[in-house]
Amino acid sequence: LGWVLDTGNAFWKIIWDHNAGDEIQDMDGGSVRQGDVRLILVPPFELLGDPAAKDGVLRGEWVMHCHEESLDFIKNEWERGERVEAEVDNTQRTFYQKRIAMLVGNSGDIHGGQGEKKGARAMLKELSYRPSGKNQRGRYIVVANGVWLNPTEEGKVAPLPYNYLSTERIFEKEPFPFV
Description:
The relative contact order is 0.16. It is globular, with a radius of gyration of 18 Å. It has three helices and nine strands. The chain is 15% helix and 27% strand. The strands form three sheets. A five-stranded antiparallel sheet has the order 5-6-7-8-9. The chain has a two-stranded antiparallel sheet with strand order 1-4. It has helices at residues 2-7, 71-77, 91-104; strands spanning 11-17, 23-25, 31-33, 36-42, 47-49, 62-70, 121-129, 139-144, 147-148. By secondary structure, the chain is of the alpha+beta class. A hairpin with a 5-residue loop joins strand 2 (23-25) and strand 3 (31-33).
């Protein structure tokens, strides 16, 4: 939680982790994980919001989470992840994070951790659009180093990943997975 102390801002991203939870037997006799909710701390520099938003980064028509991930993670999470190549330099995005970290004394890497990042990495950009008249379930686009990772089988933009939320009234006001 160093980012909260250093900048006064941080966000939690709430996701469904299909690899978490207990291992259970599926209907075909194989084993699968139950899955579980996971909270991810998001530094303020990783969250980009609609500049037209009047009441904060999460109140606009869209929000983008830009974060660095290992190629192994990307390949395991998305079918098209094999197409993603490592990015040579992401200093443009991390310049201000590193500068703030040096100024306020947050130790470790740009994410506040102490460990070294190993292996090839790429910037993962997750763009979420608020539900609208034309797109009742919102839109969700994931890109890494120029590769579109989550098109539907028809080659179209996917809806927001939490289908069941679209029936809830609060979904209209809070469709994004951040708090």
